[in-house]
Amino acid sequence: MSNKFFHIILLLSFTFFQAKSQEKAISKNASGNPVGWFDVNVGNLDRAKRFYETVFNVKLTDAPMEWGKQSFFPFNPQSPNISGALVEKKEYQPSSNNTVIYFETEDIIAEEQRIEKAGGKVVQSKMNIGEFGFISIFIDTEGNTVGLHSRK
């Protein structure tokens, strides 16, 4: 067997092994999306909870006190969407220089109107992002930069 042929067989075997390993990793998470949870750091949980409940017209659930001061967004384990929590901890400070989380909405406009009324500020109104839909960026009552996303 020639050295060149041996290297080709070795390369093909390695490629197949990598593909199988990746397939196993993806099958653990059917959507292929590794994001599973988020925390939004807040300075005042009660104020932030009122804000997000108003903007998204949802009910957040308070965590048991032994878990710390936090409230959970609605969560359905059968849904492909992730969920998260508002978390108040003295050692974590809200910031407008944070990773931006985008909340999925039907059309953005209704949420933008509720943001202003709830004490937040829209800093980038609904903007077309081509085939990916539309986004909007706002600052919540705690000073965090947060996004909205919709398909229409």
Biggest sheet statistics: 4 strands, mixed
What is the total tally of β strands?
Answer: 8
> What's the CATH architecture?
Roll
CATH superfamily: 2,3-Dihydroxybiphenyl 1,2-Dioxygenase, domain 1
H/E series: HEHEEEEHEEE
Calculate Rg over CA atoms. Answer: 21 Å
Name the CATH class: Alpha Beta
For the record, the count of structural domains works out to 1
Q: Percent helix among the residues?
A: 25-40%
Strand order of the largest sheet: 1-4-3-2
Described by the principal axes of the CA atoms, the overall outline is globular
Strand proportion? 25-35%
What class would the helix/strand composition place it in? Answer: alpha/beta
Mean pLDDT: 83
CATH topology: 2,3-Dihydroxybiphenyl 1,2-Dioxygenase, domain 1
Low-confidence stretches: 4-22
What does this structure look like?
It is a single chain. By secondary structure, this protein is α/β, with parallel strands linked by helices. The chain has one domain (35-150): Roll (2,3-Dihydroxybiphenyl 1,2-Dioxygenase, domain 1), CATH 3.10.180. It has helices at 3-28, 45-56, 109-117, and strands at residues 37-41, 61-62, 69-72, 83-88, 102-104, 121-128, 134-139, 145-150. A 4-stranded mixed beta sheet has the order 1-4-3-2, covered by helices on one side. Strands 5-8-7-6 form a 4-stranded mixed beta sheet, with helices on one face. Helix 2 packs antiparallel against helix 3 (109-117). The longest helix is centred in the N-terminal third of the chain and has 26 residues, at 3-28.
